[in-house]
Amino acid sequence: MNAESAPPAVHVERLGHHFGSKAALVDVSLRVERGELFGLVGPNGGGKTTLLKVLSTLIRPATGEARVDGVDVVVDPARARRRIGVVFQHPSLDEQLTPRENLRHHGHLHGLKGRMLAERIDQELSMVGVADRSDDLVRVLSGGLKRRVELAKGLLHQPSVLLLDEPTVGLDPGGRREFWDHLRGLKSTHDVAMLVATHLMEEAEGCDRIAIVDRGRLVALGAPDGLRAEIRGDVITLETDDAAWLASAVTEQFKAAATIVNGRVRIERPDGAAFVPRLAEAFPGRIRSITVGSPTLEDVFVHRTGRQFVDGDDD
Fold first, then answer.
1. CA angle, 181 as apex, 175 and 186 as ends, to 5°?
2. pLDDT band for position 315 (50/70/90)?
3. Phi, psi of 246 (to 5 degrees)
4. pLDDT at position 186, please?
5. What does the DSSP 8-state code read for residue 89?
6. Which of 77-86, 206-215, 303-312 has the lowest mean pLDDT?
7. Minimal CB count within 10 Å: which of 1, 19, 124, 185?
8. What is the CATH number of the domain that holds 248?
């Protein structure tokens, strides 16, 4: 099969699922291309983990279709599992074993053995920068090193798709940056698509494309730069004692669409810095503080949903 005719790494079509009366996924459709670093972004409780559980065959969707490397995860789950690697949100390593021993046992589950398995273990541990700690017990490793071993474990059987569920939970900022550096490095060393679920918008900035999900629905899809460009200017936020009055007054006087988000007045303008003095002059004593900045992915979330990005319950 040539590259042009090969199916996408992940293809989700009108996927739906619920837990009791709570909708976890609502008519979600997306594609992840081969070799792509794809971010699945949104508040906790937005549906990210549910989608990964469907793709990893842990739950059957109520409606719709999901394929991994062309294989339907419901029709042929065993075949689909051979095509995916998973880095779980919660640790999956045996801390009483070494990284090498953990990977050896994982390889046996995938039918790997002998010299091939030994070579792959050496290759993956070296790739994630843990070769010099490969014979230490996992329990003495730092959190960042443990997550790297998890990454090597997920790649050991050379999957087509790597699913990562909040892989940097528990890491300090430095550890998170190092882990994402390793993910981006995979693009040059492994022919694998990576679907990474995270509630940290700043982590998504390094992805090729992202999908923003909220309350089970897909609310935005595209490259980070392209999504931010939708806002077409700066984001101005006003702190005030009467947000409703100020939003109405700004809209009436300046014909600028002003919305209220989390008790603050929010304005999107292409001339943000120049507009700030005009606001302060027009409403003396009515504005406690003014901030202006270039749009972020959190601003994209607010732009699409009308709500502040706030974590909810687990997916």
1. 130
2. low
3. -65, -40
4. 83
5. S
6. 303-312
7. 1
8. 3.30.70.2810
Clarify whether residues 141 and 283 are in a common domain. Answer: no
State the pLDDT at residue 232.
Answer: 84
Question: In one letter, which amino acid is 142?
Answer: S
Distance CA(29)–CA(238), nearest Å, equals 36
What was the pLDDT predicted at 2?
52
Q: Is residue 224 very low, low, confident or very high in pLDDT (cuts 50, 70, 90)?
A: very high
Rounded to whole angstroms, how far apart are CA atoms 267 and 254?
A: 11
Asked if 271 and 186 sit in the same domain, the reply is: no
Burial of 174 (0-12, 13-18, 19+ CB in 10 A): exposed
Domain residues for 85? 10-223
Question: Total domain count for the chain?
Answer: 2
Question: Are the C-beta atoms of 228 and 282 separated by less than 8 Å?
Answer: no
At 91 the pLDDT is: 84
CA atoms within a 13 Å half-sphere pointing along the CA-CB vector of 198 = 24
List, in sequence order, every residue forming a beta bridge with 312; answer none if it has no partner. none
Residue 210 in contact with residue 227, Cβ under 8 Å? Answer: yes
| Exposed e or buried b per residue across 8-33, where buried means at least 16 C-beta atoms within 10 angstroms of its C-beta | bbbbbeebebeeeeebbbbebebbbe
In a domain, 304, yes or no: no
CB 211, CB 201: distance < 8 Å: no
Residue 256 is given by DSSP the state: -
Give domain status of residue 102, yes or no.
yes
Secondary structure (DSSP) of 141-205: S-HHHHHHHHHHHHHTT--SEEEEESTTTT--HHHHHHHHHHHHHHHHH---EEEEEES-HHHHT
Instruction: Kindly tell me the sign of the dihedral angle through the C-alpha atoms of 235, 239, 244, 247.
Output: negative
Are both 132 and 237 inside the same structural domain?
A: no
Would you give the end-to-end CA distance of the chain in angstroms? 37
Q: Name 298's Cβ contacts closer than 8 Å, sequence gap at least 6.
A: 201, 309
pLDDT at residue 222, rounded to an integer:
97
